[in-house]
Amino acid sequence: MTDTHLGVTVTVRYFAAASAAAGVEQEVLSTPPGTTVAEVVERLGARNPDLARVLQRCSYLRDGMAVRDLSSSLHSGETLDVLPPFAGG
């Protein structure tokens, strides 16, 4: 069977302020086939207002590559990293 029958399972990893707001470092989500990065972000924010505020400022990596198009669909087995702005020096 393919994703169209089973849905999509994605690992979401949170870093820094995103991890603090989410209360976990990572979680596994099951979503319908065709779910986009934007829809996952919306779903995560809808569960937690503190996380929703952080997500507005975050950038995302999909299997280690920067997500430029939040309307791209996720596939089973992929990892979505949630990266808040980092201060450096």
From TrEMBL:
Taxonomic superkingdom: Bacteria
InterPro entries for the chain: Beta-grasp_dom_sf, MOCS2A, Mopterin_synth/thiamin_S_b, ThiS/MoaD-like
Gene3D superfamilies in alphabetical order: 3.10.20.30
GO MF terms held by the record: nucleotide binding
Membrane-spanning residues: none
Pfam families: ThiS
SUPFAM superfamilies reported in the protein's UniProt record: MoaD/ThiS (SSF54285)
Record's GO cellular component terms: molybdopterin adenylyltransferase complex
Keywords per UniProt: Nucleotide-binding
PANTHER family: MOLYBDOPTERIN SYNTHASE SULFUR CARRIER SUBUNIT
Entry protein name: Molybdopterin synthase sulfur carrier subunit
